Amino acid sequence: MAPVPLGVRLLVSFNREQWYRALTFLLTFLLYTSFHLSRKPISIVKSELHKNCSSASAAEASTLTAAGQHLSHHDCSWKPFDKSNYKQLLGALDYSFLCAYAVGMYLSGIIGERLPIRLYLTVGMLTSGLFTCLFGLGFTFNIHNMSFYIIVQVANGLVQTTGWPSVVACIGNWFGKGRRGLIMGLWNSHTSVGNILGSLIAGYWVSSNWGLSFIVPGLIIAAMGVVCFLFLIEHPNDLKSVFDDGTPAGHQVTLKSRSSTNGHSETYLQYKENKAPGYCSYPDSVQNRKSFDTELLLPRETSCVLVQPVVVVKSESEPAAISFMGALRIPGVIEFSLCLLFAKLVSYTFLFWLPLYITKAAHLDAKQAGDLSTLFDVGGIVGGILAGVTSDKLCMRATTCAVMLLLAAPTLYGFSMISELGFGPTVAMLLVCGGLVNGPYALITTAVSADLGTHKSLKGNARALSTVTAIIDGTGSVGAAVGPLLAGVLSAGGWDHVFYMLMAADFLSLLFLLRLVTKELISVKSRPITAVELKEH
Fold first, then answer.
1. Segment 376-395 mean pLDDT
2. CB-based contacts of 287, cutoff 8 Å, min separation 6
3. Mean per-residue pLDDT for 66-70?
4. Is 0.85 topped by the overall pTM?
């Protein structure tokens, strides 16, 4: 008999639960990659919507049609972004999307807890694909009405709020706290991967047909919505309906219910085994059902009698969705939310304005600037993973974020100076800035949100995860909306003002973490962490 190949041995070494966990990890990664992929084109296309038209001769300018078509040989600005206040107009596009995203995020988590996540996410992705394509169709149908682009951006911002609370809730349901920082640090790289792919796709068509820079990403996110509908598993317990045959063989089942402490009715399954009188035991099929979060219990009104043995199992009763104020009372939610407000302000300012800044500072065309800006996201991948691993080993999420924020502020100033010295220094600083800026942002929106959403004060109510995630990311999205808008206004007086604003935001973000950092340091001093405890985490 031939030996079994090592690769096959590796495959069969994973049990069914591990395979479905890997599927959920990969699928949610790809789903949110498509969200960011569809957001990135606007930053790449900005430098094409407004270009320096002074080189166009009067004769060439006369070739413009009455409908306002752009020049075919000499690219010129796209109306209405051909005016002197083009930075404010481009900033308005960012602000309309991000403001709608911030407002919708607070509602999205609450709605998401009350609807099936798979269906909620599918609808959100399909509609997001529609609105992303509509923006690109503005080029195809030669639309120059500013209101059209604003309305499309607002609608897209609202429907994209379905994404983050849904995928974080799914990943939080499948992965425990043991190595959550590392796992979510790896998983959260979908943000940077989506930005990179979005930049490359948009950059491919930006100079020839910028409408396709939106249409192609829109079709991708819509296609991923169909994949979500077909394959996403929200919770491990959802698989029981597929693999469990129902009642264990040889058992009679009766249902009992009583009121719980929170006012909700709890259902109990009562199994009666057909065994000899006087014999009392738990059914093996129930005893081995590891996916149950509750224990095997005997209710107060039921006991194991000699005539007929009885075992009662508490079912997976549906927990009540947490209220908005209830989520705010979870320790740490307010502090991390305000910290993320300023951290995300910095990150999204880079997301929406970095390609245009590189175009002006390094004198590159739109495609080259878009390709170079992806290095910021490459650094973000490394920073997110590093933040997750460090916070796991030290068991200090807030302190890890604080240190990276403290280092980010002077690095941003260095980037503003070095970016004018040449290509090589710019590449290095983009990688460093990406890691320090996106590290805390990635850690707070993933591992921290999952930790707070499953806080011990919730007593096992995992349904709070979506609401907590939406509150934290929704507050951060306020900063994401304000940052690009301020950048559009401040850049009129010089890019130095934008970098001063970003450094101030980093320090404010650090300020809101000081209480939690102090608490973590005091906790470490009072109970030193041993090597054994580090391995357990």
1. 89
2. 296
3. 43
4. no
CA dist 450 → 254, 325, 329 (Å) = 37, 18, 16
Answer whether 228's CB lies under 8 Å from 121's CB.
yes
Select from 512, 516, 518 the least CA-distant residue to 479: 512
Tokens for 431?
A: 């990688």
- The pLDDT tens digits for 178-201 are 667 788 888 988 988 998 899 899
Averaged confidence pLDDT in the chain: 78
Q: How far apart are the C-alpha atoms of 354 and 348, rounded to whole Å?
A: 9
Work out the percent of the chain whose per-residue pLDDT is above 90.
31
Which region holds residue 390: left if phi is over 0, alpha if psi is between -120 and 50, else beta? alpha
The amino acid occupying position 253 is: V
At 138, the pLDDT band (50, 70, 90 cuts) reads very high
Residues 6+ apart with CB under 8 A from 277: 306, 307, 308
Q: Helices 190-205 and 366-394 meet at what angle, rounded to 10?
A: 180
- In three-state secondary structure terms, 249 is coil
Helix and strand tally (H, E) in the chain? Answer: 23, 3
Q: How far is CA 250 from the centre of its chain?
A: 47
Which has the closest alpha carbon to 413: 527, 500, 477?
A: 500
CB 125 within 8 A of CB 221: yes
Q: Is a pLDDT exceeding 50 seen at residue 279?
A: no
Who wins on pLDDT, 155 or 3? Answer: 155
The pLDDT tens digits of the residues spanning 440-467 come to 988 898 888 877 866 665 555 555 677 8
- If phi > 0 it is left, if psi is from -120 to 50 it is alpha, else beta; for residue 460 that is left
Q: How far apart are CA 109 and CA 473, in angstroms?
A: 10
The type of residue at 284 is D
The secondary structure of 413-444 as a DSSP string is HHHHHHTTS-HHHHHHHHHHHHHHHHHHHHHI
Query: For the segment 402-439, what is each residue's pLDDT rounded down to a tens digit?
Result: 999 999 988 888 888 876 666 777 788 889 999 998 89
From the number of C-beta atoms within 10 Å of its C-beta (0-12, 13-18, 19+), residue 274 rates as: exposed
Helix (H, G, I), strand (E, B) or coil at 254: strand
Q: Name the 3-class secondary structure at 268.
A: strand
CA atoms within 13 A on the CB side of 533: 7
What is the model's pLDDT at position 113?
A: 76
Alpha carbons 358 and 265: distance in angstroms, whole number: 60
pLDDT of residue 60: 41
What secondary structure letter does DSSP report for 295? Answer: P
Look at the alpha carbons of 435, 441, 444, 450 in this order and tell me if their dihedral is positive or negative: negative
Q: Residue 173, exposed/middle/buried by CB under 10 A (0-12, 13-18, 19+)?
A: buried
Closest by alpha carbon to 213, among 91, 67, 375, 355?
355
Residue 242 has pLDDT above 90, yes or no: no
Helical (H) or strand (E) element with 385: helix 366-394
* 202: its two tokens: 């948009």
Strand-pairing partners, residue 254, are: 270
